[in-house]
Specification:
CATH class: Alpha Beta
CATH topology: L-fuculose-1-phosphate Aldolase
Number of strands: 7
Helix content: 25-40%
Oligomer: single chain
Number of helices: 8
CATH superfamily: Class II aldolase/adducin N-terminal domain
Number of domains: 1
Strand order of the largest sheet: 4-3-2-1-5-7-6
Strand content: 5-15%
CATH architecture: 3-Layer(aba) Sandwich
Order of helices and strands: HEEEEHEHHHHEEHH
Length: about 230
């Protein structure tokens, strides 16, 4: 992928989460990767979204060295890079502090699958990381946030569950492209809101039956998917 196209996609992903109400002020960030070149485009740190242009996005390599750009990259760059290194099937990462998903992260609770809206996008509960120990917080915090996510996905497929809640922090989402990651962030917030309202209405609600969960996920994802126009 050419860097110009990558910049455009990453800018649009950043603007999409703002349009959908997932970001306040300069909270959150989106990035994308050109796998063949090993280069990542990410939002600059602290720059208001309404002023951001494609040329403002910072280009780094997978070790975080700046290749292009005069602004400082997002402070969460090391987390994004850790995810790109660990999950080779992803092409975009989005981090927000959206209201309902962040509430579940602060409660340090995974988001159970109560219905088919959740099952359409996440093949299982949305997991929450273990709390980070003090030594990980005090040194290389952003990199260790990525490591906490990667540990949590040791037995999980990141392409089937494209989101995580970082305990005490907020969600990270990913996808095959930057816009796909932004789409998943929007869906995650809706799923988090529905789950919150479900447990508020009925604390004892049971999770969706696995056969129905599988049916809804697999009809949209995987080799036998038949939802949509192909």
């Amino acid at each position: 992928m050419k860097l110009e196209a990558l910049r455009e996609q990453v800018l649009e992903a950043n603007l999409e989460v703002v349009r959908r109400g997932l970001v306040l002020y300069t909270f959150g960030n989106a990035s994308g990767i050109a796998r063949d070149e090993g280069l990542v485009a990410i939002k600059p740190s602290g720059v208001p979204y309404e002023k951001m242009r494609p040329a403002d996005l910072v280009i780094t390599d997978l070790e975080g060295r700046i290749v292009e750009g005069s602004l400082r990259p997002s402070s969460d760059l090391a987390t994004h890079l850790a995810l790109y290194r660990a999950f080779p099937g992803i092409g975009g990462v989005v981090h927000t502090h959206s209201e309902f998903a962040t509430s579940w992260a602060q409660a340090r609770r995974e988001i159970p699958c109560f219905g088919t809206t959740h099952a359409d996008y996440f093949h299982g509960p949305v997991p929450v990381t273990e709390p980070m120990p003090p030594h990980e917080i005090e040194s290389d915090y952003e990199l260790n946030t990525g490591h906490a996510i990667i540990r949590r996905f040791g037995a999980l497929d990141p392409l089937r569950i494209p989101a995580v809640l970082v305990a005490g922090h907020a969600p990270f989402c990913w996808g095959k492209t930057p816009l796909d990651a932004a789409h998943n962030a929007v869906i995650l917030e809706e799923v988090a809101k529905l789950a919150f309202r479900t447990v508020t209405l009925s604390a004892g609600t049971q999770e969706l039956e696995r056969v129905l969960h599988d049916k809804h996920f697999l009809r949209k994802h995987g080799p036998a998917a038949y939802y949509g126009q192909g």
